[in-house]
Amino acid sequence: MMRKLLFISLSLIFFSCSSSYEISEQSIANHLSTLASDAHEGRNTGTPGIEKSAVYIEKIFRENGLKPFYETYRDSFQVSPGLIGYNLIAYKEGIDENLKDDLIIIGAHYDHIGVQEEGEDKIANGANDNASGTVSVVELAKYFAKKKTKRSILFVLFSAEEMGLIGSKHLAKRMSAEKQNIYTLLNIEMVGVPLESQPYSAYLTGFDKSNMAERFNNFTRKNTFGYFEKAAEYQLFMRSDNYPFYQEMNIPAQTLCTFDFSNYPYYHHVDDEFELMDIQHMQSLISEIATGIEKMVNEPENSIQLNE
To answer: What's the CATH superfamily of 22-298?
Structure first.
């Protein structure tokens, strides 16, 4: 009898371990090298290059059993006459009947600026901006796909960010009109290289808009998010895909970033290449973020609030 119970216990442990996903440097490198490759042509909205990226991301969502939030993974919108863009949205349903309608959005923009007119190398591959954020969302989607969470999670890749936050503005207005219950949004932007000489892992834009940094650091028991003076100086809170959700829905919606304007010289440059990304740093940061999100989606009450 004892042997049988031991066998059952070991089997359950094995099943539990085998059903979890470990965020690895190899997986990050594989996804990042693909999305930032010349084959994806800089992922400009409305081009064959970003279509390749979308198909690649949709395949990952599908293989990991994540559902579309709408009829398909694609949330389409008109950028301009004759030009259509689409956000990609995967849905992980929560299991708590009282909390699963509280949606948490984990987002990043997957578009970039495409092919440039001058120079020998014309493709702006956008490895740091923002294939790094895109891969972070993909890895978090894979991490949470098989986990039981009390709240539901939306994994959102925005398009047309480089054209003026068009994709996120569209989705924020759509979800506001649908009265979707968005609890909070955490957006990931340019995390391919580490911060230098900072006591925290990433800075959070709109640091004083909410208690998100305080709560998240409590979840991770680390100094995960900190205040970065230049983020306020350059008004970065209003310059990424978090902002339309803050405007439309009056919710805690903020962006984490590790680009500090001095640690990486290739912003919107054709030399923003995969080979310059610090994969070990990315693995550490994404894993740390995953720990915080896991606590956030399972806490008994909604503790992240806007400041007065």
So the answer is: Zn peptidases (3.40.630.10)
